[in-house]
Amino acid sequence: MAGSSTPRTAALAAAATAVALLLGPVPAATADPGAPLPTPHLLPTPHLLPLPANAAPLSTAYSLNNAGDVLGECYLDIPGRFAPRALRWNTGNLGLTALEPLPGEIGTRPGAMNEAGTAVGVSFATLTDNHPVRWALDGTPTALELPAGARGGGANGINNTGVVIGDSYDAVFRPLPVKWRADGTRVALPLLDGDDTGATTAVNDAGFVIGWSERRLSGEPRKRAVVWSPSGTVTALPLPPGIDVAGVYRITDAGVIVGPGRREGSTELDRVVLWAADGTVRDIGEGRPNSITNTDTVVGAAFDAARSLHAAYWNPDGTRTLLDGPAGQQSTARTINSAGTAVGTATGSDWDHGTALLWKRDGTAVTLPPSSLSPYASASLVNESGVIVGHATVPGEQSLPRAMVWKP
Asked: Helix, strand or coil for residue 3?
């Protein structure tokens, strides 16, 4: 395919670029140094639509639950276009379920999945005509109601009680936060006074939602991290001294929130900001957070003196541990389970040709074996059973990812 300029190749390249932006630099444990390493398996690429052409040779994984279900997507070759299709894989038997679009629509994108395997996301007819959906276990979609006047929207989170969060957007594509109860009833989430746009990022099992609220159209522009209570009350999250902007990525079931912060006068979100359940906030150091456990351990990457990134975790007291990695390479940890197993990736300067890594609780690294498809891989998810999900990167001009799993 290298050097080809066909529409299919161009679409694949665009899809690969979008996937790379979504995945970002990709960042889990094993019993003892002599224990056998998990065996990698490529998640199969489905052929779902009755078309002569196969699915495109790329797939991505975004979510993993403790039952071993994986939420992701592939791209299907529909005449005249490539359409993404959300998928749910089972790592036990490597089977898959296609998450279908609403009647009359052509594509789906995944948003999130809970422990029961219920998934939410987007169904669309065109890139600007999309709708939030919840999928049953057999892949059947149910539309989630949008606010009156909304042009479209999507769902990006679901907790274990069935509460769904997402966003709608208006005619000029300004997002507004939305929540749906387990019975599908839509609940509007208010913005801070004077703001005119906002969005959700995560929801915990207690029903607290985090996101942001922003003023764009009138007065001095501002954007603030917020939390919505289960009853829908919105509260601005305070900033620690010296931090002028912060985002929110994750919230634990106890209400602890983590996100990146920017120092006054800086242009980078390179501080780790932690909000306790009582609303107090701390800047716990320089770095880029990716995830947090229910025991308040944060994983991500920290900078060295040369501004290179190295996988790290931060304890609840704010102390930091740098994790081992291949010499001369940057690394980042993406997720960690309650046993202290973290997973992530080490890469060279191009961020494309990675090595999938597993870190033990003491910070030592184990290289995960690549698949037969490619010598390059990344690891991004680990569950409580030690199942790891990531991607093989197919060598070549486009560096297309293929979703894969390591099973203990």
From this structure: coil
Separation in Å, CA 169 to CA 17, 234, 355, 369: 24, 19, 39, 43
Q: Could you report the per-residue pLDDT of 239-276, keeping only the tens digit for each?
A: 999 999 999 999 999 999 999 999 999 999 999 999 99
Residue range 278-306: average pLDDT?
Answer: 93
Positions of E strands within 79-191: 81-90, 95-98, 107-113, 119-126, 129-135, 141-143, 152-158, 164-169, 175-180, 186-188
Please identify which residue in the block is written with the tokens 């989430």: 189
Say which DSSP state 329 is in.
-
Angstrom distance (rounded) from CA 174 to CA 188: 15
Domains of the chain from N-terminus onward: 7-407 (2.140.10.30)
Contact between residue 111 and residue 120 where contact means Cβ atoms under 8 Å apart: yes
pLDDT at 398: 61
Mean pLDDT for 112-119 is 98
Residue with tokens 């501004």: 307
Band (pLDDT 50/70/90 cuts) for residue 40 is low
Report CA torsion sign: 373, 378, 383, 386.
positive
Distance CA 338, CA 292 (A): 10
Give the pLDDT score at 401: 85
Q: Give CA–CA dist 365/326, Å, rounded.
A: 9
Q: Are 197 and 221 in contact (CB under 8 A)?
A: no
At residue 154's C-alpha, the angle toward residues 54 and 102, to 5°, is 50
Number of helices and strands in the chain (H, E): 1, 33
Count of beta carbons in the 10 Å neighbourhood of residue 157: 23
Q: What does DSSP assign to residue 115?
A: T
DSSP 254-302: T--EEEEEEETT-SSEEEEEEE-TTS-EEEEEESEEEEE-TT--EEEEE
Q: Which helix (H) or strand (E) holds 39?
A: strand 39-42
Q: Give the strand order in the sheet containing 401-407.
A: 39-42, 401-407, 388-393, 377-382
Max Cα distance, the chain (Å): 62
Look up residue 158 and give its amino acid: I
- The residue among 126, 136, 69, 120 whose CA lies nearest residue 96 is 69
The residues, any chain, with a CB within 8 Å of residue 176's CB and separated by 6 or more, are 147, 150, 167, 168, 169, 170, 189, 191, 197, 198, 199
CA atoms within 13 A on the CB side of 347: 21
